[in-house]
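Run folding on both entries below.
>entry_1
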Amino acid sequence: MKNPNRASERRIARLIAFGVILYAVVMNLNRVSSALSWVLGVFSSILIGLVAALILDVPMHGFERLFARMDRRGRTSEKLRRAVSLLLAVVAVPLVLFVLLRFIVPQFINAVTNVIVIVQTNEDVIVEFFGKVGLEPEFITGKLDEIGDWIRANLTTIFGTAFTTVTSMVSSISDVVLALILAIYILADKVNIRRQAKNTVLAFLPERVSAYLLRCIQMFVTTFRTFLSLQCLEAVILGVLILVSMLLFRVPYAVTIACMTALLALIPYVGAYLSLAIGCVLIVTISPMKALIFVIIFLVAQQVEGNLIYPRVVGKSVGLPAYVTLSAVMVGGALAGIPGMFFVIPVASVAYELLRESVQRRNAERKAERAMEEQQP
């Protein structure tokens, strides 16, 4: 039987040690921040490779399940199915992104060019409007010309700049290539890596801690796989609905906006409305009435997809209430931008489930304690 005094002393010692470490970190925030930046810089390629492996594992897992259903008699080996699934995942993901951007970028550039032409055509009206609020016409005319010239000169490089910003976390193309190669190696040998990692955790950590840690990791991987799959399915359904509706009502830029919606809808909550805003800007350059029709189509399609089709097709979600999901997206976006919005939901789902189980367990223990106290004379 364990000594309660010894257990209490250990808890107090751990609290004291945690307080000392926290105090040291707070008093040396600059050094800690510099050390973390150095560590992230050194291991950036490895971290990117792990994230890429986590993302590519989702379509790879889908292909593996598909091949397993097609080959129920087991005529092909598991290694062969895994290799083919990995190859399809590595080829399919960049191919889909390329096709989507191929439809989005040219039409977007064309729409921005139309906006410039409309502004220059109605320059007198714009100058007159700003003149009524006290701004000099020469100043407005000069600024409009400067903005138009700058957009024309830099429009083709805007998307390249955006891509550079996204990949600014790496120092060179070689880092990206090495990270992708690392992700491929991880996925190719993921069964052995999973077993080795499990054995390492079990060997160096206490049994209770190792079991809890392994369960958290498994919950995160499963939740992330489910979340990404559902998010992709939702994006495809919404994109198809908008494409069909826009073609029926002859709204311009149907293919471009549908592809853009399917791509941006991968961002939880924010992405779909961002696509709506950009689509309005594109269509209003041709017809304000068509832009109004597009807004109605978009909102109706989103409601039909979210309330009728999506629940029936998917049947389950990551298990988070709407307010928790939205709060998690806001926090993740504030911490790490779009990647933070994307990865914070699986983390929040795991934390929410663990908290729910802890609350239920504690309430059950207190209920049992009260029942025992009531039974005592």
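>entry_2
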Amino acid sequence: MEYKKQADGIYDARSLGKGRMLVLGLQHLFAMFGATVLVPVLTGLSVSSTLLFAGVGTLIFHFVTKRKVPAFLGSSFAFLGGYAAIAPLTTADGAPLDNTALLPYACFGVACAGALYLVVSALIKALGAKKIMKFFPPIVTGPIIIAIGLSLSKSAVDNCSVNWVVALVAIAVAVICNIFGKGMIKIIPIILGVISSYIVAVLFGDVDFSKIAEADWIGLPFGYHNTVFSIFSSEVDTGLLLTSVITIMPIAIATIVEHIGGISAIASTTGINYIKDPGLHRTLLGDGLATIVASFFGAPANTTYGENTGVLTLSRVFDPRVIRIAAVIAAVFAFSPKFEALIASIPTATCGGISIVLYGMISAVGVRNIVENKVNFQKSRNVIIAALILVLSIGVSYSTAGAISFTIGSVTISFTGLAIGAIVGIVLNAILPGKDYEFNDGDDTTEE
């Protein structure tokens, strides 16, 4: 199928008509849906709020980037460890835990991580991308991303242990669809794994439909108690607030690099250099603002979605208007509590099986980051940096305490393994001799 091509190189879908553009928008929604709603299921955040601010965040991103970049912003999995550290869903012995009062503190930490995007955006605008990114080479970001996935692996296995048959169905379907699937089947392995596993769970009697029947069809996506503002309406736990910031903000180091990779992937798909125009500073600003707004209202951090880049590759329709249609549809779905209840009914074992795949994929992205950038592990400095990041990040996370804490006055501050590993890696990379990484600002992206 041929599409009219504009002078700026973006394919124009208007020639298809409004009806087909709507279908293309639904396709993008379908592609991002499974992974996006899984984050609130795994953290206890509101599914409805997540959908609303995935849509709103995408629209904010498009506004900031001059409506040029065909990117959809969905829930980021990189912050799962941060949510688990501040607002766990289970106690140490695996008993269910109501984390409603703790989630706004975690969201505040995520909002601060989003603010770091704004700082980096301003620095890139003022100094240029190369001067800033030299502090975040692959030898630092790669192991951090690997540690994010591995540090979450225990919770995934624990969830699977509730019903391994249900969990294995989720894993098997997701893997088979991703490897052997064609067309959209290959793009949506996560949601197909969830659906298949859900059906098996129903046969086992593990699904409670009562809450779905009781839920209203229309309602508000979030309440005041879900927002960060609720923290300051009563006595604030200052120690927990500071711990949240220190624990979660370092994750932005990895997600900023993830963002750059996502924008580069879209640029490669469309043949348009978005790092130059509208500029990396604008894409980071849009992503950061979207994350801050989402977090303040009790939704997960946002990130550019590879699933939607896959849809761009398949459809060859690069018009950002199609993405904005998907964003509006997502926001509309957010106002249905019945839809949220349906998502919340997904069994624990199903979440565990999908989590094993997703957490493994997070770590695999870190490995790919190291391999593609040809990090030289014959250099002792690189071996030392990677070793300390991995051992500290994972070792502290799996220790009895799960963090390293210290007290200043009446305030107790805790550093998670990931925070410690990230700080040590950045400092060592800055002070050890032998740096050889040069950040590519995208000048070599070919244009059509």
